[in-house]
Amino acid sequence: MRIAVVILNWNGRSMLERFLPSLMDGLHAEAKVIVADNASTDDSVVFLQENFPEVERIVLDKNWGFAEGYNKALRQIAAEYYVLLNSDVEVTQGWLAPLLDFMDTHGEVAACQPKLCSEVEHGSFEYAGACGGFLDSLGYPFCRGRVFDTVEQDSGQYDTVADVLWATGACLFIRSRDYWAAGGFDGRFFAHSEEIDLCWRLRLQGKRIVCVPGSVVYHVGGGALPKSNPRKTFLNFRNNLTMLYKCIGNDRELRRVMRWRWFLDYLAAWQALLLKGKLGDFKAIYQARRAFRQWRADFDAERAEIRRNSVQESVVGQQPYSILWQYYVRRRRKFSQLP
Fold this sequence. Notes:
This protein has 339 residues and is α/β, with parallel strands linked by helices. The chain contains 11 helices and 13 strands.
């Protein structure tokens, strides 16, 4: 099989019913759709059996989360390319062809993503990836088309192929050999930041990550965990800190970043409580930092291995400035305004 389009589903029957027809309609001749079910408690599997018998199903024994759920499913799939596709993504006609053509002609590229626009508002980018992702000097992610909560309208301003640091996990086109050579997703993350962590490791190995905006898909976003859920806040903070610990190879730079993040994370916690009244997020940030401290040593061996396998220390897409300073002090709210 050349292309395995793999949807990891957890209680997403309504999303499958809504978006699977457009995916199956005009599917690329070299692609096959596979749904990996993360032990759903709704009728997702029955729905697939009755309505899409041509879709292969992998039923996992429990909810392994996004990261390990994909690892367990992909180990059962033999394909040249994986496309990790969220169940809440609406694809467009011919969306796979530009991605496949680019990957076939650029062997040094490990992964790419399409332009990710909002399914709710088609003229706008979508938060979780937009037109390709970057990190600032302290590990905060942002995208072409989305900086923090400022999401731009899509007027073609980022319609060029661009090297990025990370590609969105909502629609990630990746070579299977590169996925496994880098170790796949870190299953301990459960969900959130796992695609950034994987792409960063691939970048350190000298691989390219690219956005190919000639392909367009539309993403609902926030399906399994809404943005306001404190569990999401916990996972984002814990996993981001863990990723930094794993991937920043220079010890002096790591200490600098962690000192800043100690201050900024606790500032974010108190801001959530005092300015926004979000007690759940306040607790989640404290819990995330405690969880990171408790399991940090578990990643020492992997941190050393990443350093051994790295062919470069700094990578394209990791910017030398603070996005907090640019956004809140310099008032640069759009990617095109950044240095």
